[in-house]
Amino acid sequence: MLKIKKITVENFRGLRLPVSIDFVKGSKTTSALIYGRNGTGKSSMVDAWEWLHKFYIENLSREGVLLTDLPHKASGGINSYISVDFQHTSINNATATFNSKKITTPTTTGEYNEFRALSSYPNYLRYTDLNDFICNKRKAARYEYIAKYFGLEKFSLLQDTLQTSLNKQLSNLQKLQKDFEASSNAINSITGLTTVDEATVVKFINTIASKHKISAITTFKQAENVKAALQKIIQENPVAKELTEWKAFQLRQNQFYLITTAKVNCTALEELFTDLKQNEESVKQLILSSLYEQSIEVISKLEDKSKCPVCDEAFDGDLLQHVTAKHNSLAALNKKKTEFDAKKSLVEKQFEVILRKIAAIEAESSAVVLLAFQSFFDDLKTIASTLPTLNATLKKQLKDLATLSISNDEAIAKIDTIISKEVASKTLVADKIAALSKDEKTKNLAQDYTNLSNIIDNFKSHSINKEKVTYLKNITDNLQTFFNSLTSYIQTEIQNTFTVISADVVDYFNVLENSNPDIKNPALKLITGKDKAVELEIEFASEKITPAFKFLSESQVNSFGLAFFLAAVKRFNKDFKFFILDDVVNSFDSFKRPRVAKLIATKFSDFQVLMITHDQIFFDTVQRKFPEWQRYKFTSWDYSTGPKFKPSKNYLEEIQAHIDEDNPITAGQTLGKYLEWTFGILCQNMETPIPYRVENIYTLSDYYNPLAKRFRDKIKLPNKQHKLFELLDDFETGTIFRNYCVHWKNEATQFTSEEIEAIFKKWVEIEEIIFCTSCKSFAHYKNISNTNYVRCDCGAANLLEEKYYSPKK
Amino acid sequence: MPELKDWIAGFKIDKPELNDFVVKLEGFISDTGFNTSKFENAVAIGLQRKEEEVIKTFREDVEN
Question: Which domain of life does this protein belong to (chain B) (predicted)?
Answer without folding.
Answer: Bacteria
